[in-house]
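Revision sheet: structure tokens.
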Amino acid sequence: MSLGTANFGASGNPDHTEAQKVIHKSLDVGVNLIDTNDVYSNGEAEEIVGAALKGRRDDVIVSTKFGSPSGPEVNRAGASRRWIIQAVEASLRRLQTDWIDIYHLHRPAPDCDLEETLEALTDLVKQGKIRYFGSSSTSAPDIVEAQWVSQRRNLGRFASEQICYNLLARGVERAELATCQKYRIGVLVWSPLCGGWLSGAYRVGAEPPRPLRSKIPIFASLYDTAIPENQLKLEAADQLATLAEEAGISLPELALAFALNHPAVSSVILGPDGLAHLESALRGIDVVLADDIMNEIDRIVPAGTTINAVDWGFSPLSLSPKALRRRR
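Predicted:
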């Protein structure tokens, strides 16, 4: 398992001391990969990670990301050479380090030539500022194209892919996980608890929780139970919670064990906001799911099914109204 930091800072838990305790506890129990992003709490999460790793940096794999808007200016986003070089220097300063182990493109950037992106990232590897680079939330065809461009142009290749995969969002089983496996691309799973839907708090007939993210407009559709797809998620989460109870484990343990069970998955990114949340999540490491439990999971949510497509975190341009209906 890896440690994610999306809940560190102003956008989650603003207590830096608590966040650093979570990082130190994770390292003490054997977690050696910490994942962050230059836009988590406007860079504050990177600063927390940098401060926490003083004296321990050499033994930790640090992953951060670029590409998402870092301000209102049009040029403070994307995958151009200009922004990549500017973004990596800012992340290095916040992380208080000389190098980044894995530098991820947060989302595909169709408005930028892929060769330009790969060339800039390859140059950063040669300069020693990053060790490897990867992608995130990428469709199978785009994963293949990136590998082709790397080979054709003799450039470095995406070595890892961050992907949304959980009991309620299994669509990547159709192609993306198999494609990563074929090209020996490491898979880091994000949202293994489906943004809290697999925490055990979502049960039929109970008042649903109102997580902090549900109040942010961009995430509202993930939690609105008036949406038919979310009603189906609620019913599935309830059945999965019952299955976990019958197996003598918690629903989060079931969910984390499920994600770790897939042969393409290299690591699952935990996203705790405090020590209690971390310790609860770590218990999923030792859970082994028997075949009968996996079969019941497949009955509740069939393989390759994502109940609400919004959970994937990225919608291909090919599914936009303009692309589907040829609207101008």
